[in-house]
Write a structure and sequence with these properties.
179 residues; alpha/beta; 38% helix; 19% strand; disordered N terminus
């Protein structure tokens, strides 16, 4: 069965939660129980295309379109928390999803990776969070969460990594989105 593109990430996230609970379709716990026992899911996205290489620059029109695509993909996944850095490009990448969900993003300085990871590790069971970060920082954040992801080139704007924890083990799934 082929899933519509917007349902794909939601299906993968749901599957990861169910796998973390050790259950399959039809034999899982109730929705409330599943939410309270499920691992937190952290979705990390590299910010969209930026309008320059120096300074705190905004997104390009292509980047704005990619940010809208990210929102379209994630709006039905149950994201409850959004984290960005202080830079315009990360805030603008998260903005369409924040507007669609009514979530106020939490800004954590880009050089405060440990503070961000601590916040992510303290999320309640069953939480889903989006982190919009940078090509050099995203793999380090994933590593600090206990998983691995390949390096991200500074020209790659289509990367998403979803991290879940199953007991003491972290798992990372890598995706690409947009054009």
């Amino acid at each position: 069965m082929k899933l519509p593109r917007r349902s794909l990430l939601a299906a993968v996230a749901a599957g990861a939660v169910l796998a973390g609970l050790g259950c399959g379709p039809g034999d899982g716990p109730s929705k409330d129980t599943a939410r309270s026992e499920a691992p937190a899911i952290v979705i990390l996205a590299r910010h969209a295309e930026k309008a320059g290489e120096e300074g705190d620059v905004p997104l390009t029109p292509e980047g704005e379109e990619r940010a809208r695509e990210l929102s379209r993909m994630l709006k039905d996944t149950g994201v409850q928390h959004i984290f960005t850095s202080q830079y315009i490009r990360t805030k603008a990448t998260a903005a369409p999803l924040a507007q669609a969900t009514g979530i106020t993003p939490v800004e954590i300085p880009a050089d405060s990776e440990d503070a961000l990871v601590q916040r992510l590790q303290q999320l309640p069971a069953g939480s889903v969070a989006l982190v919009v970060s940078h090509s050099d920082r995203l793999p380090r954040i994933v590593a600090k969460l206990g998983a691995e992801t390949p390096p991200i080139d500074h020209t790659e704007y289509d990367r998403i990594v979803m991290v879940t924890r199953d007991g003491g083990t972290a798992h990372a799934l890598n995706f690409r989105y947009g054009k």
